[in-house]
Amino acid sequence: MKRRSPFSAYVGADFGEPEVDLDSRDVALLRELAVDSRQSQRALSRKVGMSPPAVAERLARFERTGVIKQYSIAIDWGRLGLGVVAVVNITLRPGQDRQQVFDALADIVELEQLTIVTGRYDLIARFRISDQTHLRDLILERVPALPGILRTETLLGLGTLDTDEFASRMFETFIDPGAVAAAN
C-alpha cells in the first residue's frame, strides 16, 4: 500500500482522484503562489531556490494534475453591493434525485458555494445578496420553488472573518524552511 504524504494525511485527495506527491520544493512553491499568484516565475524561482525553467515545469505539472485549478483574485463583494451572506441549510425530499437539485441551485447566480453535508441537513448553500428584499425573494420564492426541496433554514451572516491565507498557512505547516535552503 502506498504511503500517504504528510499533506494528504490532513487533507487527502478527492474521492476517486489519484493523490499527487509533493516534495518540500513543491510545497514551498504552492505556498508562495497562495500568497500571491501573480508572481513571475523568476520571482518564484528566487523565493524557492529553483531555476525559472524548473519552476515552469512544476507549475505545468500542477496544472496538468489538477493541483492548481485556476489562478484567481479575491473580490470584496460588499464594495460591489453584495455584502450580505445568507447561509441556507437545505433538507431534500426523501428519494430526491440530488443531481437535479444541484443543477437547479447552480442556476441561481447568487450561489457562492454548495456543500453536501451529513447530519440534520442534506446541503448547505451560501448565497451573496444585496439586502432584505433580495433575501426575501431568494428564500421565500426562488429556493423553495426548486424541485426536491423539503425545507430550509436560513442563517444571516452578521460579519465575516476572511481566512484568505488558509492555503499559505496549510502549506506552512508542512514545510521546513531549512529543508529548502539545504536542498540548494
Describe this structure in words.
The structure is a single chain. The protein is α+β, with helices and mostly antiparallel strands. Helix content is 40%, strand content 16%. The protein contains eight helices and four strands. A four-stranded antiparallel sheet has the order 2-3-1-4. Helix 2 (24-35) crosses helix 3 and helix 2 runs antiparallel to helix 7. The radius of gyration is 21 Å and the shape is elongated. The two termini are 32 Å apart. Mean pLDDT is 84; it is low at 1-15 and 178-184.
Q: What is the rounded Rg?
A: 21 Å
Please provide the count of β strands.
Answer: 4
Inertia-based shape: elongated
Q: Which sequence of strands runs across the widest sheet?
A: 2-3-1-4
Order of secondary-structure elements: HHHHEHEEHEHH
Could you tell me the strand content as a percent range?
A: 15-25%
Number of separate helices: 8
Averaged pLDDT: 84
Poorly predicted parts:
1-15, 178-184
Helix content: 40-55%
* Main beta sheet strand tally, sense and closure: 4 strands, antiparallel
Whole-Å distance between the termini?
32 Å
Helix/strand/pairing category:
alpha+beta
Any key phrases for this structure?
40% helix, disordered C terminus, 184 residues, alpha+beta
